[in-house]
Amino acid sequence: MATSQRFGSTAVEQAEAVLVEHYPHLVRLAYVTLPDCLGRHTRVLLAHRVVQRALPRAGGGPDPGGAGGPDSPGGPLGGVRVRVLRAALAPTGRAHALLVRVGWPPAPPFVWGLRFWPPAGGIDEAARLLGGAPAPVRAAFVLHRLDGLPEEAVVRLLGAAGATDAADGVREALAVPVDETLLRTLRTPEFDSSVVSTRPTDLLRRRRRVRAGWAAVAALALAGGVLVADGNPAGTPAAPAAGPVAAGVLDPARLVRVPAEAWADTARVDFTAWPARGARTADRSLLARALGAWAARPGGVTVSAAPGTATDPPAHHPQLLYAGNVPGEGAGQDGRTRAVVLLLDGDRVVRYTEYPGYTEDAAGPRGRTLDFARTDEAGVTTAAALALGSNADGQPARYLLAPWIAAAGTRDLLRPGDGTTALAVGADGVTAPAAVPRTAGTCDAWPALELTSSARIVEKHSFVLADLGTPTPVHLTYTPLPDGPGAVAARQPREATGAAARAAWAPVACRLRELRGGGVRAVNVWDFAASELPDGAGRAVWTCTRASGWAGPGDVLVQLRLPAGPPQDVTRARSTAACGRFGQHLLAGTRWRSPAGRWYLIAAGSREVAGISASGAVRAEANGRTLTAPAAAEGAPVSLTARLASGGRITALDGAGGGRD
Question: CA dist 631 to 54, 407, 529, 594, 628, Å?
Fold first, then answer.
């Protein structure tokens, strides 16, 4: 049995040598293993810090694994890996627990005034691919799929680092579907996982924070002197008051205001480039009420938030996007206006509304409202419009459009042959009233916005947005069949503006009702396969509709679009990567009855599927991307497996998001 040894000076020098030599790979291991709830900036810094603190101290503690080969837990590289894993696998129920494990208070690497993130196409894509997986699974993925360690070595390393069920973690890592191109990129010697991109934080906001901090110090010193001199009268409770920093944040005069033409001179085309617009941007009383309602939540303020959106008061000066009067539309409002304020606070937008008849003492749901929505990594399309009201009853709505929108119109998704009707836009970016889908009753129309970007941003770029009841409309896209005219790779959605896109969206548009208020960022309809139906029934198209949330995970619905009649639901899954950029391999099947009354098992796969096998109640096999076999109307379950052109295998998507390698 190997005895535990303490690190001597030679061992420390060996550990330093392997740490320097393998630094990018160790950073990759730490970054992917660290909790996916951390932001990219924090995750990058913690990854570098975990690796740098993995250097042992001479005589400072036992060797974590004893003797062994260079990649064993006790070898030089294995020992460093174990120390990295121990820190990155720290309990993550609370952020504080993690920071304690990797060291606190802050120590190098430590930055102020800059934001770091991995370059596109690198380790961040691997981290997103593994989002939601347990930390040991993410670590096993890196060690086996990227670093090339044998499964047994990975199990030993994870076990030495304190991971429970290390063998299960390795098995789950082997089942993660992954783009081979991404793996090849990450394995190339030229790719350096320790390289980061950087950008300064808001310089004006940072300057104001410094001033506010000095003001807070001065105010606290003054308050301390007063308390020492006078004390607090006996029996009189101290009145709570906002501190100097909070008062600065809630000061309307300190709201961030962006110049009108900033959007045309920046590479960051999102909500941060929006200027402050509206007739009441100088109304300090309105702005103060909006900020006060956000911070204090007095009676009469109704709060709603998209899933995963924080509703806490602002920690920094918000950016003012809009303040003005919005005319009431539809029955019951008599044309009365409501005051609306739109504010941007980091990765969320806040909409404050004062309804007609509001007074300072108003109580009840029609007094004032606060609506919160996420805006993580919004861009040209997802930051193109904000709804100026919540029109859940289907009444017409107005939208504030981004300054880079050159033209706007509306069209009905249920009528693909109809054209787009122009929508007037005022000088302040507010549209004329636009029809909104009804939330209940017969779905006989589904109005959507079709917007066109200015040529100063991108030439001839039109896209479609749908109102699902939150301040941020949802971006609608389409991916055509992989073997049809104008086909593209399965993970490259295009705008839902062409004839094929309109035809694909018409049968599924009414299903958008199911997504109302769900924090959805974009919805893509992907025609992933086509089948010739038996008994001369014609051609059917297999469609996967993916609703991607701002937080990352998405819900999918697979349907069979038949030559006649409504689509047939095949399966659905929630919180899955399927049908997205990191889940482009797909297999689905269903029982189907032909017009002749005979039942069949039909199945189809995405573009990389080279063969399909069925087992269980139906036993059949077919080369290519489709399978058809006689079947009973009901019976025991059928298992479907597909062989990929790359040699991998996938199973059919199920309700739990299955269908992985």
Answer: 59, 53, 21, 11, 9
Pick from 472, 473, 606, 456: nearest CA to 530:
606
Token representation of residue 125: 């894509």
Lowest-confidence region among 325-329, 504-508, 617-621, 623-627: 325-329
Identity of the amino acid at 168: D
Q: Tokens 């069925």 appear where?
A: 614
Q: What values do phi and psi take at 193, rounded to 5?
A: -70, -15
Helix (H) or strand (E) holding 643: strand 638-644
Q: What is the pLDDT of residues 254-286, one digit of tens each?
A: 999 999 888 888 778 899 999 999 999 999 999
Helix (H) or strand (E) holding 542: strand 538-549
Radius of gyration of the chain (CA): 29
Structure token digits, residue 270: 């999102």
Question: How far apart are alpha carbons 658 and 172 in whole angstroms?
Answer: 12
C-alpha to C-alpha distance for 468 and 488, rounded to whole angstroms: 28
Alpha carbons 328 and 322: distance in angstroms, whole number: 17
367: enclosing H helix or E strand:
none
Task: Fill in the DSSP letter of residue 3.
Answer: P
Q: What is the mean pLDDT of residues 210-230?
A: 46
Contacts of 637 (CB under 8 A, 6+ apart): 616, 617
Question: pTM score, two decimals?
Answer: 0.64
Q: Reply yes or no: is the peptide bond before residue 109 cis, omega within 30 of 0.
A: yes
Q: Which long-range contacts (CB under 8 A, 24 or more apart) does 333-338 make?
A: 333/395, 338/389
Q: How many other C-beta atoms can be found within 10 angstroms of the C-beta atom of residue 168? A: 15
Are 102 and 50 within 8 A, CB to CB?
A: yes
Q: What is the DSSP letter of 35?
A: -
* H helix or E strand, kind and range, residue 115: strand 114-117
Instruction: Tell me which H or E stretch contains 166.
Output: helix 166-174
3-class DSSP state of 287: helix
CB of 483 closer than 8 Å to CB of 626: no
Query: b/e for 433-472, b at 16 or more Cβ within 10 A?
Result: bbbbbbeeeeeeebbbbbbbbbeebeeebbbbbbbbbbbb
Q: How far apart are CA 660 and CA 374, in angstroms?
A: 29
> Residues 174, 179, 180, CA angle at the centre, nearest 5°?
85
Query: By mean pLDDT, which of 179-193, 374-388, 466-480, 609-623 is the weakest?
Result: 179-193
